[in-house]
Amino acid sequence: MEDRIETTGNGSIIQHGKLNNRIYLIKLAKEDCPSIISFLSELARENNYTKLFCKIPAWAAPYFFADGYLTEAIIPGFFQGKEAVFFLAKYLDSDRFLEFEKDRLREFSGLLEASQKKDKLPNEGTVEVKPLDASDVVQISELYRKVFRTYPFPIHNQGYIQKTMEENVKYYGVKKNKKLIAVASAEIDLKGQNAEMTDFATNPGYRGLKLGQRLLSRMEKEMKAIQISTLYTMARLQSIPMNKVFLRYQYHYAGTLIKNTNISGSIESMNVLYKHI
Description:
alpha+beta; Aminopeptidase; seven-stranded mixed beta sheet; six-stranded mixed beta sheet; 13 strands
């Protein structure tokens, strides 16, 4: 079961379906605001979705607030290092908002209070991160299938990996004996000068080797080289180790998306973390 990604109106991009049981406004075209707000509400009503989730520039936020949206996260200087982005939500089922991971949030709060230091990474000669290309698509999808039972985007699908590679996503990986053992990707918005550091996965047999940190370190260097100024991620609240990786690289906490994403078999909350480079 996959959620659909569609272009609507004057170029706005949405994802919706029963897998995540929500609508995600990924990109808002200026010409579609504020009319898209009623469109999203109607689409949610027709499909009985329980959450509306929108990533929008600061100028559009008041229109959404007027319709009952709440702020879940804010990243300053997101677009071209100047304008903030707002992650807004509207819950259409109270259970989805109320039944979240309170204990995990308390644990994460403690993580934010503690000092996070970078771990010493292995020498380049022992672990090498390389950009991946079309010849790696099969291995990428197989690794994602092995690590994640479900995922908010169809990364198990080779066609999807190939398509995103040809558009705005760069994949990076670590191999051992030509076999892919860790992977991550950067979803790049060149015009907005921002990139989402996402889709981190490590073969269970190779965990504990700090491969996520190695991937992130290489990806940051690559993004800086192409004038990306803001990096961000949506890290699983339940994955304390993944949150630690980003905090050790001086990422800042922007907020938590409550019960937002279907990953590894259930709908989980996600922490938004960001860094200006």
